[in-house]
């Protein structure tokens, strides 16, 4: 035992001495930011500021109405031509419209915009194209494509973007917080703010300002609504966007599928742990064929004030027999709600009838 302790101590001394650099010894392998790097970093901060307002910096205004078209300025010009044609045809989502990367058409447009950025051969071309897109493309799409480009473009390593919850706080902070900052601040200069001498702070209790009980699930709001955790998930999706290829963007060597499964396994494991410490029991099985007991109200709103979609209690995913999308369905569940199927006419508890109805639902959903 004593020999083990001595060996560990000697090992720690060796590691410490190997990691220590005297002040007189220059540190190698470190690149300090020069004037050119700082200019580029400043550009990213400014172009992402007040994303829903026009650019306010005079040096960018000459590039807001045109983009670079010379073939020599792009690595893969054929991909960029797709962007040119789509833009000239008016196919892109207009500014001010709601954007979702899970909308197939929005996803395609985001990819076109991403390749428009990614294929530039130098920063000057990239700079001018970004300014053009900032002023003429949909705001949400612009943020998504620019973030992907900075993450993956070989010439943009080391640059830091503002945190996504600072660029687009609507997706992370409750509506009451946004309202307090943007509206009540107009007539009450001290509302919600505490000065610490350097900057102002507004307090955000994002877990339960207006408590909503989701059959006990609200106990985990401190975890599921955590801003840092949601930002982490966003950046993971930027590192490995599901709609771009692996070979071209050097993602095929990162054990991409294994990392994807591992990340979700870790999230679920942590979620399960939080359930256990809150005495909530194991995670219930999920089945699209049965109503989802627990509703969800995020208390978030888009920048234009439209609230995020609310999933009502006992929501039935899929299509009804009429072929219309199933809306949130409320109703009194019989005991053992998972044994019944909720339809507009009432509950179906016979298993054979459930099987036939669910088969029809799947048939309609695949059309």
From TrEMBL:
Cellular component GO terms held in the UniProt record: extracellular region
SUPFAM superfamilies reported in the protein's UniProt record: Di-copper centre-containing domain (SSF48056), Hemocyanin, N-terminal domain (SSF48050)
Q: Please list which residues make up the signal peptide.
A: 1-18
Q: Which residues form the Hemocyanin middle domain?
A: 163-315
Query: Which spans of this chain does the record mark as coiled coil?
Result: none
> Pfam families in the record, alphabetically?
Hemocyanin_M, Hemocyanin_N
Q: Which UniProt keywords apply?
A: Signal, Storage protein
UniProt xrefs under Gene3D superfamilies: Di-copper center containing domain from catechol oxidase, Hemocyanin, N-terminal domain
Q: What is this protein called?
A: Putative larval serum protein 1 gamma
| Species this chain originates from | Anopheles aquasalis (Malaria mosquito)
């Amino acid at each position: 035992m004593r020999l083990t302790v001595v060996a560990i101590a000697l090992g720690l001394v060796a590691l410490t001495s190997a990691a220590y650099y005297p002040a007189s010894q220059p540190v190698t392998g470190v690149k300090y930011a020069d004037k050119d790097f700082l200019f580029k970093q400043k550009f990213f901060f400014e172009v992402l500021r007040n994303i829903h307002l026009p650019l306010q910096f005079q040096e960018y205004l000459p590039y807001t109405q045109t983009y670079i078209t010379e073939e020599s300025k792009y690595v893969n010009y054929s991909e960029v031509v797709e962007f040119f044609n789509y833009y000239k045809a008016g196919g892109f989502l207009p500014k001010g419209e709601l954007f979702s990367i899970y909308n197939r058409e929005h996803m395609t447009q985001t990819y076109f915009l991403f390749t428009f950025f990614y294929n530039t051969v130098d920063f000057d071309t990239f700079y001018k194209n970004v300014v053009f897109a900032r002023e003429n493309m949909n705001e949400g799409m612009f943020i998504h494509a620019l973030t992907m480009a900075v993450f993956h473009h070989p010439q943009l390593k080391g640059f830091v973007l503002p945190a996504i919850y600072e660029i687009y706080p609507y997706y992370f902070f409750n509506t009451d917080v946004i309202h307090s900052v943007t509206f009540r601040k107009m007539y009450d200069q001290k509302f919600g703010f505490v000065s610490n001498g350097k900057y102002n702070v507004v307090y955000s209790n994002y877990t339960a300002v207006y408590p909503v009980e989701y059959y006990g699930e609200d106990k985990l709001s401190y975890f599921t609504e955590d801003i840092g955790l949601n930002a982490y998930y966003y950046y993971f999706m930027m590192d490995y966007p599901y709609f771009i290829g692996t070979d071209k963007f050097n993602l095929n060597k990162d054990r991409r599928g294994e990392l994807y499964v591992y990340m979700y396994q870790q999230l679920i494991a942590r979620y399960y742990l939080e359930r256990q410490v809150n005495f909530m029991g194991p995670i219930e099985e999920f089945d699209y064929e049965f109503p989802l007991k627990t509703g969800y109200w995020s208390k978030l709103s888009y920048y234009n004030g439209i609230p995020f979609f609310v999933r009502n209690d006992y929501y039935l995913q899929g299509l009804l027999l009429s072929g219309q999308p199933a809306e949130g369905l409320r109703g009194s569940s019989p005991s053992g709600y998972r044994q019944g199927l909720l339809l507009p006419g009432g509950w179906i508890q016979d298993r054979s009838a459930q099987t036939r109805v669910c088969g029809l639902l799947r048939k309609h959903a695949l059309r």
